[in-house]
Design a protein that fits this description.
By secondary structure, the protein is an alpha/beta fold. It has helices at 18-32, 50-57, 69-84, and strands at 3-8, 36-43, 61-65. It has a three-stranded parallel β-sheet, sandwiched between helices. The longest helix is centred in the C-terminal third of the chain and has 16 residues, at 69-84.
Length: 93
């Protein structure tokens, strides 16, 4: 089982756009294969879909508001490092 972090600026639940539906289907496929999938939602002011996404993702939902994508990735990597002391498959990035 691999640890996978999906990063997207669109909500997955409810899927109101094609992009959100694609990310949701990708996540569901990876979860069905037994992977440990987390979702980093780069929240934009336009969308407010926290409740639906919280029900699906639970404690695997991570949100960053008002930050650049590069900043979100940097913070996500730091969060993973604090969580278990290693980046796992991301170690070489």
């Amino acid at each position: 089982m691999s640890r996978i972090l999906l990063v997207a600026p669109v909500p997955t639940h409810p899927s109101t756009t094609g992009t959100g539906a694609r990310v949701r289907h990708m996540a569901e496929g990876l979860l069905s294969l037994g992977h440990d999938v987390h979702f980093l939602y780069v929240r934009q002011k336009v969308w407010s879909a926290h409740d639906g996404m919280q029900r699906f993702w639970g404690d695997r939902l991570h949100e960053f508001r008002g930050l650049s994508v590069a900043s979100c990735i940097h913070r996500g990597r730091r969060k993973l490092l604090r969580g278990n002391g290693t980046f796992g498959p991301w170690r070489k990035w």
